[in-house]
Amino acid sequence: FGVNMTHIESRLKTFTRTSPTFHIDFEGQRTDEKVQKLLEHLRSTCISVNVMDERPVPWFPINIRDLNLTRDTLDAGTGLINEDHPGFHDKAYRSRRNELAALAHGYEHGQPLPLVKYNQQEIDTWGVVYSKLKERHAQFACKEMNAIMPEMEKHCGYAANNIPQLRDISDFLQQRTGFTLRPVQGLL
Prior knowledge:
By secondary structure, this protein is mostly helical. It contains 5 helices and 2 strands; from the N terminus they run ββααααα. The protein has helices spanning 33-45, 91-106, 120-140, 143-156, 166-177; strands at 5-11, 21-26. The protein has a two-stranded antiparallel sheet. The radius of gyration is 23 Å and the shape is elongated.
C-alpha cells in the first residue's frame, strides 16, 4: 500500500475485547489515497478499525546524542525533592543528592560514565539492604535474576561491601544485551 508504519503496539486482550488489538501509527493523512486504500483493506479483514486523531509530538530524540538535550526536562534540571520527601529537611542529604545530580547533569553521550565516590555510611547502608535482599533472592526473585546475579557480582562489583558503579553495570549490559545506561539526575 506504500504507507510507512512508524509504530505498532499489540495487546492480546483488553477489558472490552477478548481478541488481539493493534495500535498502529503511520505517516500520512486519512485523506491520502494510499491511506484510504489501506484502511479499506483493513476494514475488510478486521473486526473493527478505528482511526484516531493525529497525536502531536513536538520533539522526540532521533539519535542517542539527542538525549543530552533532555537533561533539564525531567525536573527542570534541579534534582528537586518535594516537601513530603523524608530527606527534604536534611541538609546533608540534600547536599549529597545535589552532588550526584551534578554528576548526571554534566554527563554527555560519548564520555565515560562518571564514577561516584561513595562514603562509608552509604556503603554500610547498601550492605545492609543488599544482604537482606540477597537472603530472599532464592525464594522471591525470578529465575533470570538468580541466574544473572553471580555474573553481576563478578563483573559489576555487586557485593555487600561495594556499591556497583553505573559504568560497570552499563558495560556488562552492553556485552550481554546491547543496551547501555546513562545517568539521570532526577526521578523518571
